[in-house]
């Protein structure tokens, strides 16, 4: 259960930054990466979420992302996403830094979402960078061939950050700014193992923020945060932020 200190800190905060991971979308029915039954249980990250795997077998990787995009399209934001939107009524600045590529924070209505790892609903050509409609990917996959660009014939990829790829520089800069500026930092639903995003909670602590973790399981930072709140985001956040 959360402390009175945290409630007071939230009430007096001018800026709250939130880092979210796959756990906040679990209650929307989107499988996480590393939980039992999660996405990586069937595939290893290096098998699919990297450019070599993609070039090696574009159709497999395009098909995997199409499958995940269909899950996302059928999902709705949950009480955890909505609680972060409600927080914006009480705190002047709320920055939602997400590792998720599922677009659910945008669809919930959060005002300032920083997508560190991109967005699965967007695709583009690897060669000429033209935006490509997801329907074109779906058509090609259904015909059993890799999706190619209508302009130059290049391979189409999802607009997500793969392992070994740089995060969008402006996104990482803005996330670091918010992390060092905020009064309270919430780390919600992330196993805190993927860098450089995983560095942000401790950067917030080093910068003087009050750092709170919301996760049913402990992670590598649980012993170092100011408060570890054990529980699902869809229950803990509404109780905390109501
Ligand atoms: C880069 C997008 C360099 C694609 C993803 C050794 C040490 C440090 C770093 C490295 C290293 N070796 C390699 C690296 C770098 C690597 C990395 O960090 N690897 C890790 C695995 C060791 N990082 C990179 O490659 C990054 N790029 O470093 O570039 C560079 C530098 C210069 C020039 C060129 C390159 C890029 C990383 C981004 C990879 N892309 N996703 C896609 O989605 O397919 S990562 C993927 O995992 C997700 O995006 C997600 O963000 C990330 C972390 O997963 P989580 O979100 O935390 O999800 P997870 O399932 O793990 O955990 C869920 C949590 O929720 C659990 O704790 C669970 O308990 C909890 N939970 C469950 N239910 C609930 C809940 N919580 C709340 N409520 C619930 N109901």
TrEMBL record:
Major place of localization?
Answer: cytoplasm
Recorded GO CC terms: cytoplasm
Swiss-Prot/TrEMBL keywords = Cytoplasm, Metal-binding, NAD, Transferase, Zinc
- Recite the UniProt cofactor note for this protein: Binds 1 zinc ion per subunit.
List residues binding Zn(2+): 125, 128, 149, 152
Q: Which residues cross the membrane?
A: none
Cofactor entry: Zn(2+)
EC number annotated for this UniProt entry: 2.3.1.286
Q: Where in the cell is it found?
A: Cytoplasm
Residues annotated as domain Deacetylase sirtuin-type: 1-242
- Binding of substrate, residues: 65, 68
**Chain residues that bind NAD(+):** 21-40, 99-102, 189-191, 215-217, 233
Per the record, the domain of life is: Bacteria
**CDD domains cross-referenced by the UniProt entry:** SIRT5_Af1_CobB (cd01412)
Residue positions of the active site: 117 (proton acceptor)
* Catalyzed chemical reaction(s): N(6)-acetyl-L-lysyl-[protein] + NAD(+) + H2O = 2''-O-acetyl-ADP-D-ribose + nicotinamide + L-lysyl-[protein]; N(6)-succinyl-L-lysyl-[protein] + NAD(+) + H2O = 2''-O-succinyl-ADP-D-ribose + nicotinamide + L-lysyl-[protein]
Q: Does the keyword Repeat apply?
A: no
Give any GO molecular function from the UniProt entry: zinc ion binding
Signal sequence interval, chain numbering: none
Family statement: Belongs to the sirtuin family. Class III subfamily.
Q: What is known about what this protein does?
A: NAD-dependent lysine deacetylase and desuccinylase that specifically removes acetyl and succinyl groups on target proteins. Modulates the activities of several proteins which are inactive in their acylated form.
What is the protein name for this chain?
Answer: NAD-dependent protein deacylase
State the organism of origin: Longibacter salinarum
Per the record, the gene is: cobB
